[in-house]
HAMP domain-containing histidine kinase
Amino acid sequence: MKRFRYITITTLVVIAIMVVANIVYLHSLYNSIKEQSIQTATECLRRADILEIISRMKGTSVGEDDSFIRLTLMVQGEKTADGSYEYPNLLENIDKTMSLYFHFIASNTPDMNPRDFSDVEHIYRKELSGFGLAPEDVMVTDIPGESPAFEKHWKIKVNNAEGEPIVIGYISPLSGYIFRRMAGIIITSAVILLLMSFLIWYLLHWVGKFRSIEQMKDDFTHNMTHELKTPVAVAYSAADSMLRYYDQSDEQRNKRLLTIIMQRLNFLSGMIENILSMSMERFKSMQLNIEKVRLRPLVEEVVGMIEMKAGKPAKIEIYIPENVEISTDSLHFGNVISNLLDNAVKYSGDAVEIKIYGDNNEISISDNGIGIPKGSLPYIFDKFYRVTDGDRYEVGGYGLGLYYVKQISEMQGWSISVISEENKGTTFTIKFNRDEKR
């Protein structure tokens, strides 16, 4: 029990760690893509700013001058071990230099048209779309400070050499774009997580099943030991009495002791045969002697035996017409009815009331016993399974009776069902398949 609980807790902790680690990774990835998107949006705004200035230079004295403007850029790189040069952030530095240059030209050209930020916004959208970015809202200004209308938008700034903003852009968050880029990873992570969860659930399911089997095995061993000890002890005592105090002249005493030994040995032999008959190989090779049987007399015979050995007041009422006949193996069907009635008597209070209804289609056995817990109903026909809630464990048995009932029923093409409510009673119903060919 403790080991199973440890495995369960460990598994749940592993799942929780996996989920948390996956969430942390996806959050980190989201922020990384967001930073890349902001950097791209910044470069797009810088280029849009430059292109807008160039468009205003047309028609000015600067733009109509036949002479050309020479712009010299000094690029500084680092020499690597193999003799080549690396130029980190080359394109970004060129864009920054060009932005500063064109702003210098614009500020020193008095006849240039004033800036129209709607043109900047239009160019900015085109630049963004070239990188697959399509924000719903775009606004560009050169006024520093926060705009209440764009409080939740991303703020993009292009600064001058002194670090002061030359132009400021606001774009609506690109969450959809980011999630689209993450879609493959999100789907893969979700599939892996679901697969791992399923595998862990499957593992726990089988661990629980093996635990139940282990518990049933232990219960069976305990119950069989208990069932075997009594007849063995009685037979041993009788044999010991004959050995120690043997009196050839007391024939009556010797016969009584030998009878006790034979009875106990017959009981043990029957018990062993019952256990062996539960094996699947024996069931597969078992041949049923199917014949027409009158249902009521067969049930009455079994009821008579149950009433004799009940050991408590047992009121058993039979509601079966005299003329009902079924096709079955009378020996095994009698054992089926005996098992169901025996359980009804054992799992009841000081007195038991049993009602048996039958016709050509089915037979049902209802009692007013302690009932079966709802959680145990799916397992009561399993081999070796016993309900251990409450006082049920004190009742003798080794968990084979209902298994035998179900196997014999299914071998004849019948079905068996159960309805039970705790402290109210249980009803077993066997439906006969009259068209079954055997």
